[in-house]
Design a protein that fits this description.
Cell wall formation. This is UDP-N-acetylenolpyruvoylglucosamine reductase. This protein is an alpha+beta fold. The chain has three domains: 2-78, Uridine Diphospho-n-acetylenolpyruvylglucosamine Reductase, domain 2, CATH 3.30.43.10; 85-209, Uridine Diphospho-n-acetylenolpyruvylglucosamine Reductase, domain 3 (2-Layer Sandwich), CATH 3.30.465.10; 217-316, no CATH class. The chain contains eleven helices and 16 strands. It has helices at residues 2-7, 18-22, 39-52, 100-109, 125-131, 140-143, 195-212, 230-235, 237-254, 257-267, 291-304, and strands at 11-17, 29-35, 56-59, 65-67, 75-78, 85-88, 91-95, 134-135, 138-139, 144-151, 157-161, 180-188, 218-219, 277-279, 282-285, 314-316. A hairpin with a 2-residue loop joins strand 6 and strand 7 (91-95). It is globular.
């Protein structure tokens, strides 16, 4: 297989430590990581995988994907080099590996509406399109016109319109699917507004994100879909009321997020979780954090919510 990759010019690396890809402390080795740099190379690669019957996984920026210690694939495909952009008649076509923040910032600077809340979300446009990522009232499902996909079963191309993607909160028909790889995304750029107003709103959103997110520690963003967290809040109204009362001096005088978070988990009966999080719904990794810590956090949160939380991140086993 490696000879064929070389003949068609696809860059690859052998025996890559998983931690090098994830920025976490996994110890496993990924046998082969490939980096197609054009849509034609991606198509050729798909045909090679089909020919050899290999197991594979497509990964973008790994900003909302966790690779378990049990994760085993013959080939990992990185989309980071698929980053070309083309604009025509109010539609911006971007390849799946383009950085979401860079694309969104560019469109805000062009006065395009719907991207001012997407700036600051880490990861690729392809992954964000599948997940229907969003923040501050903006969502990918509101700006995507359609996507070009490649079938990983037969190598055929298929176009999905916005309606066919069946967007829901942090979800689409392609989330969790192994059948298709997103190649390129058509984004709507026809709705315009005042550039200065959009830029000011973008900066305000970025400042809000800076305050809320602990940039010193690795995280995968919000672990659970925000709307599903309402189940936890409803089940523990009294405990969370006591938290607000206990946290009032801190809120008025000290503004310490870590104190507030400790009190919140304390009132829920699990103060030990506060050291792993920068908010109740976002888990963070440090050098000594283990997969067991992460899974215990998910298990505890699900118990608190009666097993009704919906994962926003992707966990690959």
């Amino acid at each position: 297989m490696q000879q064929k990759l070389g003949k068609i010019g696809i860059i690859y690396k052998k025996d890559i430590p998983m931690s090098q890809l994830t920025g976490m402390n996994q110890v496993d080795i990924i046998p082969l990581v490939v980096y197609p740099s054009s849509l034609q190379q991606m198509t050729d690669l798909c045909n090679i995988l089909i020919e050899y019957g290999l197991t594979w996984e497509i990964l973008g920026g790994l900003t909302n994907t966790y690779l378990c210690e049990s994760f085993k694939r013959d080939v990992v495909i990185s989309t980071r080099k698929l980053n070309r952009i083309h604009q025509l008649d109010g539609i911006l076509t971007v390849e799946c590996g383009c950085n979401l923040t860079s694309v969104s910032k560019h469109l805000v600077e062009q006065g395009c509406i719907g991207y001012e809340g997407l700036v600051g979300i880490p990861g690729t446009v392809g992954a964000a399109t599948i997940n229907n990522s969003g923040a501050f009232g903006c969502e990918m499902g509101k700006v995507v016109k359609g996507i070009q996909c490649l079938s990983m079963r037969n190598g055929q191309l298929k176009y999905f319109s916005n309606d066919e993607l069946q967007y829901e909160k942090r979800n689409s028909i392609l989330k969790g699917s192994k059948e298709y790889c997103v190649l390129s995304i058509d984004l709507n750029t026809s709705h315009k507004s005042n550039i200065e107003d959009l830029t000011a709103l973008m900066r305000k959103n970025l400042e809000m994100r800076r305050i809320k997110v602990d940039g010193r520690r690795k995280s995968l963003g919000t672990v659970f879909v925000a709307t599903s967290m309402k189940e936890l809040y409803n089940r523990h109204r009294m405990a969370l009321f006591f938290w607000k009362v206990l946290n009032l001096p801190n809120k008025l005088l000290f503004h310490r997020n870590d104190w507030s978070l400790y009190l919140q988990f304390l009132c829920l009966g699990h103060p030990e979780l506060s050291r792993h999080c920068d908010s109740i719904g976002r888990f963070c990794w440090e050098k000594d954090t283990t997969e067991s810590d992460f899974m215990q956090y998910i298990h505890t949160m699900q118990n608190l919510a009666g097993e009704k939380l919906v994962l926003e991140i992707d966990i690959k086993e």
